[in-house]
Every structure is written in C-alpha cells, then in structure tokens.
Amino acid sequence: MSDATTDKPSNTSGGQTIRPEEAAHFGKLAKEWWDPKGSSAMLHKLNPVRLAFLRDAIDVHWAGDVRNARPLAGKSALDVGCGAGLLAEPLARMGAQVTGVDAAPENVAAASVHAEGVGLDIRYIAGEIGAQDLGKFDLVTSMEVIEHVADKRRFLSELAVRLADDGLMVLSTPNRTPQSRLLMIGAAEGVGLIPKGTHHWDDFITPEELGELLGSIGLEMGEPSGIAFSPMKGLHLSGDLSLNYIVTARRAD
C-alpha cells in the first residue's frame, strides 16, 4: 500500500492522517449527503446494513436487551469521518451522547444543520482526529474511512487512544481484492453510483492487514462480516468478504 507508517502508536500526536485532497473531495459532496438519490446514494443503501451489524455488536458487547430501542443510553460514542451524520444520528437515537469528527468543514456544517433540523443534540468537530482533545468514549466508530487515510497505523492509534478500556470499536472498509476493483471502482464509479475518484484501490486494506495493525496497537479484532451485493438482496451482511467488510475491535486481554 502507498501509506507511510510509524514505528510506534501515537498518543494524540496531532499528526496528519487524512490527505487534504481526500477531505476536499468529500467536502464538495457535502450538500448532497442527505439526498438518498444524490452522490451519497450508495451510503444510504449501505447504512442500514452497517447499523444491523452495529446493533448486534452493541448487544453482545454490553449484554443488552435486544428489545431496547436505546441500547446506548448513558454511553458516549465517537464517529470519526462522520460526513454529514448518516451514522451519528442513529447512534444518538440509540441513546448515545455523540461526537462526530470529520476532516472536511463542509461536512461538519451540513451535519450540524441536519441534526438541529431533526432535533438531535450532536457535537460535531472539523479537523484531524489527532488534533482533538476529546477524552475517551464507550463506542468508537469509523465507517468507510481507513481506506482514505495517509497513515493507517497512526489513524488506528488515534482511535485507540479515545477508546475506553472496556469500550467497543467498529470499523468498515472495502477489501483489496479483484472483485472490489471491478465492482467498486470499475463498475460503481464508472456508471456514477459512486462519485468518480472516491476510491483508490491500492489504499484498500485486507482483513488480515487490518487485524495485524490493530494487534500492533493493543487491540483485538473480532470475526469480520462481509458486506456483499446481489441483485436479489442488494447490499447485505454475508460471509463473503471480497467486496467490503465490517469488524469489531476491543482492547486485548
């Protein structure tokens, strides 16, 4: 992969992990984040799949009642690379006190306006995660973000610094496979389902590589679940990891 790495986990180093051109790319899409037929249409289709995995992971991690509509009541959540709040808002509805961080100020502005419009109290911050003095959170999420960062190990270290000792981390990202190159870049970007230039296949990370990086900073990765696509089911959770996958991580015992 093309990202530079560091030898040791950083502690709120403030170092840059997001490439400026990546932040600029997503910032230009800010006004369409909440349009289910706009440039973020694929994220709107992906979000319920991610939320289904996340809800199960929350119930398992905290041994919660699956019937509880607010399983995160009394807990704090940090969503890094939050965009305009597609995940942050459901986390708030599940009862969490939510903080969203995004490198693009345009996204944070759009997220704040939308949250206010639907009556949700969410703290949004623009900037690098490493530059933020945020404390620790029970839940840390970062969905479809690590494939865009310049230094994956440092980025994961910054997430780990903000994870409570008994907290839960959830990550999702495309896998680096021939299938993802063909479908996500060749097909989806080719026909406009995903904005052209969104992905760079060489920056995708495999589950094995992600597990090794998490292990190197003291986190243990759970069993990944694939996010697959079929004409009959659309996007759905699957044992097939070849396109995209979602995982949990916890502090190693």
SSE topology:
Layout: H1 20-27, H2 41-61, E1 76-80, H3 88-93, E2 97-102, H4 105-117, E3 123-126, E4 137-143, H5 152-161, E5 163-174, H6 178-189, H7 207-216, E6 219-221, E7 225-230, E8 234-238, E9 244-251
Task: Please describe what this structure looks like.
This protein has 253 residues and is α/β, with parallel strands linked by helices. The chain has a single domain, classed as Vaccinia Virus protein VP39 (Rossmann fold), CATH 3.40.50. It has 7 helices and 9 strands, in the order ααβαβαββαβααββββ. Strands 1, 2, 3, 4, 5, 6, 7, 8 and 9 form a 9-stranded mixed β-sheet that branches. β1, α3 (88-93) and β2 form a beta-alpha-beta unit. It is globular and about 45 Å long. Residues 1-14 have low confidence and may be disordered.
**Unreliable spans:** 1-14
User: Termini, distance in Å?
Assistant: 30 Å
CATH fold naming: Rossmann fold
Rounded average pLDDT: 87
Indicate the overall shape: globular
**Fraction of helical residues:** 25-40%
The helix/strand order is: HHEHEHEEHEHHEEEE
Radius of gyration: 17 Å
The CATH architecture category equals 3-Layer(aba) Sandwich
* Beta fraction: 15-25%
CATH class: Alpha Beta
When the domains are counted, the total is 1
Query: What's the total count of β strands?
Result: 9
CATH superfamily: Vaccinia Virus protein VP39
